[in-house]
Design goal:
CATH topology of the largest domain: Chloramphenicol Acetyltransferase
Helix content: 25-40%
Keywords: Acyltransferase, Lipoyl, Transferase
Mean pLDDT: 82
Largest sheet: 7 strands, mixed
Family: Belongs to the 2-oxoacid dehydrogenase family.
Low-confidence stretches: 83-110, 155-164
Subunit structure: Forms a 24-polypeptide structural core with octahedral symmetry.
Number of domains: 3
Oligomer: single chain
Cofactor: (R)-lipoate
Distance between the termini: 59 Å
InterPro entries: 2-oxoA_DH_lipoyl-BS, 2-oxoacid_DH_actylTfrase, 2-oxoacid_DH_E2_comp, Biotin_lipoyl, CAT-like_dom_sf, E3-bd_dom_sf, PSBD, Single_hybrid_motif
Amino acid sequence: MIEIRVPDEQEGTKAVVRSWLKKVGDVVAENDPLVELETDKVTQEVPAPAAGVLAEIVLDTDAEAIPGAVLGRITTDKAVAAAPASSEPEAPPSVERAASAPGAIGDAETRLSPSVRRALQQHGIDPSLIKGTGRDGRITREDVDRAVAQATATGVGEPATAQPRQTSTQDIPHDKMRLKIAENMARAVAEQPHVTAVFEADFSAVAAHKAALAAKGVKLSYTAYIVKAAAESMAAAPAINGRWESDRIAISPTIDIGVGTALGEKGLVVPVVKDAGSLSVEEIGAKLDDLTRRARDGALTGADVSGGSFTISNHGVSGSLLAAPIILHSGQAAILGVGKLEKRVVVRECDGEEAMAIRPMAYVTLTIDHRVVDGHQTNAWLTRFVEVLEGWPAA
């Protein structure tokens, strides 16, 4: 027997089994996708560690999957592989079968995965009122979500202590990502004293460089320039690339920049450009293209979204002129916000005289953990950041 295990690397949060892509008795080739795991941020596929037959599923849908846990087993026995697959695979040993009549609350409780149990408790829904669609009638997270949606529309299934409230069929039940975002937001505001500074940046030089590269067939986003400029600015205030520890301010040895990526109604993820300080703007652009594409395809791994030392929120791409993002990661000291790039009238000196000019401008904000850095470091960092952007050399 070959064990299928949960990968050791994941984004610091518990994973659950989202779905099995094969059933017991199926023949699999080495590296075939077997099972999908889901955290609050990413979904990843676990491949088959060897060729053979899927002999056993240990952790079924909605079960918690801690790093290193056994998900299932593959047999490489040729006799087993040649035998016809059972049309009805056995339930995994980790699932307790109900001993008495279906629908009894006690029996239902023994058949609930931890994530389903939490969801039922959160919404105050009696499991005996839900018809499970999983294996052997188990209640899945999708069953709970449907019950929550129905309860929202009809008022059925609300906790006994809940006060009457107006509901709508447009209400959206919380998913794991939204709950985790809420948890991180509340923790960040409670634990980290936030202060925000606002500067303005002229993107004329960057726009000219971007256009020159485009003429040569190299297409870059403005975000690539922003990441590069942020990396170069760390020398002006190294603590911006650090974090608060109980006994010190720890400075990250590499500049690993996370970039907020919106996923529509599903929230956002923050893939990380590792060691951005050692990369050219073209290399950063290529990495961003790859990370953004995989983020929107739901194909990021835990390693793609972990280890960031600084974060950028380019909220201007969705139309916002000015914002002060919250530091979401406790292991970081600052977050950069970049507003909408738009042409504005500014005063510039020309031939010794002041004159009005139309330039592509954007507001940039740096929100800092005031335990780690002070105002003069914040302003020094932003001053250098603006200087890098406005002094970008010609292509």
